[in-house]
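Could someone model 2'-monophosphoadenosine-5'-diphosphate with this protein?
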Amino acid sequence: MTRRCFIIGHPVAHSRSPLIHGHWLAEYGLAGSYERVDVPPAEVPAFIARLRAGEFVGGNVTVPNKEAVLPLLDQASATARAMGAANTLWMADGRLHGDNTDAYGFLAHLDACVPGWAERARTALILGAGGAARAVIHGLAERGVNRILLVNRSSERAVDLAASFPEAVEAHPWRDVAVLVAESDLIVNTTSLGMHGQPPLEIDLSALRPGTIVDDIVYVPLETPLLAEARRRGGLPVDGLGMLLHQAVPGFERWFGVRPQVTDALRVKLEADIPAS
Ligand code: ATR
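Reply:
Sure, complex below.
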């Protein structure tokens, strides 16, 4: 029987996940499918009923449905509960399971690009306070980064998110970013700023110390203006595409029983699908 998988979101046409899973299905010679399904939030419960009825073995969940699926699960992983959101679902023994693999994807890519990064990342600066910031902070805290400076356009959201990690995270006003940059060993942009079609991310990197890791979760364009500027100033740029690739690994393994590799060939395929600027 062909195992069918999905990604549900609204809209979902832009999702590059089918390219990733399609590549792995072909590479490992597996009979399976991975389909985009546009599911508006109101239709999530009906879609989950189809999953439970056996139409699919599992799939991914993207914006705006990651939070809505959580109460519909039989078993949510500790990470999904901590995130308040799930991006990976699978059926096992008639029960619906859910996990959130964003923090895993973020960490796995950083590990691949900058081995040993956690030993030198004593202070991290996070830009943004949405769901992606929560995943990144969760991952950093898990690896022992215990001074995380958080800034966001809406300061109340930064204060709220910091309150979930009282040991590690301090909220600061956005206007202090230039000063916070000088204190940071790792800087992560989790906002949509700098993405193709979005406003630019305007921060002053003049105090960036050479060797500072600058990670942008935006991957369209692949080299964002933030990463280009960091590179010019001697920083270590880490692009957002790797997080997308790595977050897909645990799901594929659950659905198809093979742990897939994030290879150069896969990256090249995805890069070819991303506009240059
Ligand atoms: P995600 O789940 O991808 O993190 P989100 O929860 O909508 O998405 O969060 C988007 C982040 O980008 C937020 O930090 C948001 O700032 P606000 O909390 O102030 O909305 C940030 N962001 C989006 N557009 C922005 C803009 N034009 N200027 C500054 N920050 C912006």
